[in-house]
Amino acid sequence: MDRKNSIVFTAKRVGNIEIKNRIVKSATFENAATTDGEVTDTLIKIYSDLAKGGAGMIITGGAAVYPKNISLHRAMRVYDDRYIPGLNRLTKAVHEADGDCKIVLQLFHQGRQVTTAESGANLGAYLSPALMDYIGSHPEIFDEEGGDDEAEPTGPSSVFDTLLQQTPRALTVEEIEAIVNGFADGILRAREAGFDGVQLHAAHGWLLSSFLSARTNKRDDQYGGSIENRIRIIQEIYEKGRKKVGENFPVMIKMDTTDFFPDGTTIGQSVETAKCISTLGIDAVEASGGMWESLTLGEEKLGWKPYLIPEARVDIDTRDKEGYFLEGAKAIKKQITSPVMLVGGVRSFSKAEEILEQGDVDFVSLARPLIRQPDLPRIWLAGGPDKAGCISCNACFPVGNPPLSCKLDS
Questions:
Q1: 3-class secondary structure for 222-287?
Q2: What are the φ and ψ backbone dihedral angles of 253, each rounded to 5 degrees?
Q3: How many whole angstroms separate alpha carbon 42 and alpha carbon 344?
Q4: Nearest to 29 by CA among 80, 77, 66
Q5: Which of 129, 195, 288, 356 is least surrounded by CB atoms within 10 angstroms?
């Protein structure tokens, strides 16, 4: 059955750009740059395949905006002009693969979730069974060393992380200003490299997320306390970035609807945060949830199995388990005028169509299904199976040396 008349395949604008359909490839760490953060042929193939596969917009895995505290040793980097040529090679490849596909660079800082050899060992208990099976069969994936051995976890405040068993150092105001400038410069470099927009990663426990959450932000200066103060770092990034690129370059944000802690981000608080951020002029909000530390709450409190990563749940085998951040996304959508994207567990065309037809959100973001099937949008458009081939096992979570990929056939 041809689905070309479905709302899923209608166009919608984000800022000044038109997205050809409502399917967004949500950001996923690719583990595919060089150890110095340069674009590789592997990265170009990943994103070219996604463009050929029919997604309306692709959001890349996070690119580091600050030269310190990087423990994801094969993450892209954008904190220096020398990265622009490689990034431009990536955007050209995507636009050549499909001139109507938009590609957005996600900008991030690891913040308190910097892992060392010691703290990273605490994550082992939270790897999914499928990923553990893959690791057991492929011990060679850990042959290569990488990352910054001197990487230091930092955050708005020195709040102990019960998962990583470490306490981040509280950033000084001068350091915050330098990081703000790093994000703003990253916005400019993204435009110069040919990206169609950027997304600020303010979810999942990374630095910007930790400023938004009252659990991890205990500051008593201009960057802490009220919601207005906690979003100040984002406001400063947006305003400085906007001055560099003008009004016609989309700047989006990914944010948590909840971090599952009662003293942290709740849906109600996320709505108020989104309202404040939207008034700045943010072009779109992607609604997600969770941070690594959420896993320590356990299955009984969470209501789902706590495996890395908390925003990517396992065993999504029925329709009622799909779209697990929908409640928060709907609440945000009702209060802001910026387009809202929902990420989290959508596995079937019919569910995506239902969510969009009800006006709950404007776009549906997919990550793991498009790792398994980069051409899933074209499959759906042509009337293929309703359900994606992804079984939500999280074996695609990149550990060791190999780049992001589905491991079902490995």
A1: CCCCCHHHHCHHHHHHHHHHHHHHCCCCCEEEEEECCCCCCCCCCHHHHHHHHHHHHHHCCCCEEE
A2: -145, 145
A3: 26
A4: 77
A5: 129
Task: Provide the token pair at 103.
Answer: 């590609």
Q: SS3 of 253, please?
A: strand
Domains plus CATH for the chain? 7-381 (3.20.20.70)
Closest CA to 63 of 170, 188, 158: 188
Look up residue 38 and give its two tokens: 């340069």
Distances from the Cα of 153 to the Cαs of 29, 42, 210, in angstroms? 19, 29, 12
Distance, CA of 330 to CA of 410 (rounded, Å): 38
For residue 168, the 8-state DSSP code is P
Axis crossing angle, helix 267-280 with helix 232-245, rounded to the nearest 10: 30
Q: Please name which of 146, 309, 177, 167 lies closest in space to residue 239, comparing C-alpha atoms.
A: 177
Rg (CA), the chain: 19
Distance between CA atoms of residues 54 and 268, nearest Å: 35
- State the 10-residue block means of pLDDT for the chain, 410 residues long: 93 98 98 96 98 98 93 94 98 98 98 90 94 93 63 96 97 98 98 98 98 98 98 98 98 98 96 97 98 97 95 95 98 98 98 98 98 98 97 94 89
Q: How far apart are CA 80 and CA 278, in angstroms?
A: 29
Helix spans in 25-127 (H): 41-52, 84-97, 117-120
Going from the C-alpha of 198 to that of each of 102, 106, 108, 132, 166, the distances in angstroms are 11, 6, 11, 34, 31
Length of the chain: 410
Q: What is the C-alpha separation between 292 and 120, in angstroms, rounded?
A: 12
pTM above 0.85, yes or no: yes
The contacts of residue 94 (CB under 8 Å, 6+ apart) are 47, 48, 50, 51, 58, 101, 103
